[in-house]
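RETRY 2/3 - previous attempt timed out on the joint model. Re-submitting the same 638-residue input unchanged.
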Amino acid sequence: MAAVSMTQVFRRDRVGMVSLAVVGFFVLLAVTAPLITALYGKNPTEHYGQNETGLLSPEGLPVLPNGGISAEHWFGIEPGLGRDVLAQLLHGIRTSLLIAFASAAVVAVVGVAVGVTAGYLSGLVDRAFTFVCNVLLAFPALLFLLTLGPVVQTRFVGPEESEPAWMQFTVLILVFSAFGWVPLAMVLRTVVRSLREREFVEAARALGASRRHIVFRELLPNVWAPVLVHLTLAVPAIVTTEAALSFLGVGINEPLPDWGRMISRGSEVFYDDPTYMVFPGVSLLVFVLAFNLLGDAVRDALDPHTVR
Amino acid sequence: MTRYLLKRVAQAAAVLLAITALAFALFYAAPSDPALIACGPRCDTAQVEAVRASMGLDRPLLAQFLDYAGGIVTGRTIADVDGTPIPCPAPCLGYSYTLHQPVLAAIADRLPVTVSLAAGALTVIVVLGVGSGLAAALRRGRPTDRLLSGFSLLGASVQIYFLGYVLQFLLVYTTGLVPLPRYVPFAAHPAQWALGLLLPWLVLGFVNAAVFARLTRSQLLETMHHGYVRTARAKGLGTLRAHLKYTARGAAGPLVQLLGLEVGALLGGAFITETVFGLGGVGKLAVDAVNGNDLPTVVGTVLLAAFFVVVFVAVADVVVAWLDPRVRLA
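RETRY 2/3 succeeded.
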């Protein structure tokens, strides 16, 4: 019942539907990126500008105006290495979304488990929970992420080897999850603390329901709305943090395509070739904007109490 | 109130201790050879050995931690790579073998840049964020509200590492309206100081103001419809006085808390803004330390950033408790 009316409210929200369409478009591009680039006849790693003469000047800048945009390379070519911008951009979405969705999934599981437990149990568990949250919230997460690179590198990888791709992904996902569950768990703790006092929980308790039954059957079904809202807003936050890390020189390494690293490279040649930075920059802006609007729309649809 | 204050200070101290332990464990105990990282890439074997001895890495982990934590409280003496003893007065955050100076001294050199950046950005955040949130709440549902809400959504979605370059390109490089961002000490030339930091202030302020605008708007709208505000107005209090005395006080709590977090975060170093505009503050120091594998500086800046956040969040909590008796009695 509730789910139906929520869908109806959402459908009436024009901005919400448009942002959902944009987000869906990005996801579609991410899933079909290899297919699209195959049809387009390029791949994200080949150095076209270096292999073919006439594309890059001796200084490594695209010869054609606007970052080397041509019928051959629709979004231009990368200065220096001469890779195709469109192919990199499409494959870059995969990097961002894979990390963001995987982290969001872990955040959901950990945040729900911890938040609901702490809210329901109270007492010592609740105090320990609050303390851990305070520590993690005060810990400078971005700086921590920056630092983890060298630690992981010396611990698990030899000095001359490069970090394998799966390890880069795993480290990022683990760290985003390690910090990301805190706000969700704090919200859920508050929600559950008030739910716990409601009649239906009391009724279940009076009927002799186990603690397990109360948590999973009575409380959990009532918290999915804040979880959904939180996750919708968490995905763009993770995408931008990941891009920021790559911009600062850590995060995802070459040759994996990444928007943050494209922006970083673009910043080095910004005055000579501004076009190169515009594509990843605008893509990121549109993507994050759409996701934030979607998050707002989901919240409005799920929570009729919000004053608009 | 005194009881609440003491409780809050004790809590902050416990959190700081836990963060110190966590940071120490992660960066000194987790890597297979902290001396190698601390010494940096240009060190030869003998130097790495010297650093290892100087950091006390051959001793038990707990003793190392006590040394480190003790140094923060009482100060200590650390030997440089070549064996020269360097006094590191309290609060000693360790010694950078790359910069050849105590970490705290390196931070102190760069703190004025970060503080200047934070001060201006905070002004922009408060004026722009609270101002536009207030305007949007008062003109709710009208074009002004929609325009301002759209603007703050844009601010919440745009990235400093994109907006910063675009504005630099348009305002500095193409038109020359604003001078190239740089840091001039305030004492040397106040006008140059403000002019050089104008663009970073605006960018950092605009991006962070968005959250404030949205929170201000929703807080005001929620409080305005509370019974006690209506009662005050029904009893004949004027619109402005009712809003100032009741709405503002009722809505301020979450805003003060967000502001505390923001102040703490900005003082800990604006990594991205400083990198984009080439300002040599604490954030740039941290980023350079990470890229140069300067472990003691990294841990020092982590602790400093955490310190500022913990302190200002605690200050904000105390202010909220003063504003709202329900908090301190809970």
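The mean pLDDT of chain A is 82. Closing ticket.
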